[in-house]
Amino acid sequence: MIFVTTSHKPAKEQVLKARKLAEELGLPYLSRKNHSNLLSFVGDDYCYVVESDRIVVKYKNGSLFFHPSTAKVRMRNIKKGLKDHLIECLGLKGDEFILDTTFGLGAEAILMAGFLREGRILGLEASVPIYVVVREGLKTYRDKEEWINIAMSKIELLNYDFRTYLSSCSDGFFDIVYCDPMFENPVYESSSMNPLRPFAVYATVTDADVREMIRVARKKVVLKAHAKDSMFERIKVDMITGSKKSQVLYGVINKK
Are 122 and 216 within one domain? Predict the structure, then answer.
């Protein structure tokens, strides 16, 4: 059973937010007072829990919640002078309008936004549970590292499948289009990604998809894949860069 509830002993505002979310999603609202053991009601499904400062999706094997994930670690490494392959291949000037077609928890979007003085990012997330959790996180999460809070303010998130959204865009509407689909060969050691897996959309990026990305990009398209994936065997790119250690690769297509 999929439903919306709150944490124990909720404030009035939590109840109102939970009821509003239930109405938005077309789901039942269950009072936590009468449902202390959530997992007994969830079964093989999941539920949305409106807590005092965030929304969490709980399911039998864990919970999904928003956090800046690897963005903080990667920015610290950049400030130490270490190379970040994504940031290097983007070549940001600071005023770009970027489309992130597969947002997920948004770690890479937050990192990118950290380099945008005047630019902004539009993120697309097709999975409703991920979208709900991250939409709330971008609004309410506050970090001790102020650059993250500023970066999140430059991001807008929509609940869209990227194919549907791209078809509605005019040519060259974005400066850069970024696509980070779920890997064909998952890295299960990635603790930040594991809670996301039950809810992620596993769509193979095709040549037709990339042609649409190129059409709506003014400067370049950047694709992400694992070295063992078939992405860069199937899709021609101008340049591939990445880490031998992590085997995460970025392919760049420059707009001609």
Answer: yes
If asked whether residues 124 and 229 sit together in one domain, one would say yes
Work out how many domains the chain is built from and give that number: 2
Per-residue pLDDT reduced to its tens digit, 68-116: 989 999 999 999 999 999 999 999 999 999 999 999 999 999 999 999 9
Q: Which helix (H) or strand (E) holds 93?
A: none
Neighbours of 212 (CB within 10 A): 20
Q: How far apart are CA 29 and CA 54, in angstroms?
A: 17
Report helix angle 12-25 to 128-140, nearest 10.
140
User: Are 113 and 151 in contact, with CB atoms under 8 Å apart?
Assistant: yes
Looking at 1-58, list the stretches that DSSP marks H as alpha helix, in order from N- to C-terminal side. Answer: 12-25, 38-42
Write down the pTM of the prediction.
0.93
CATH no. for residue 88? 3.40.50.150
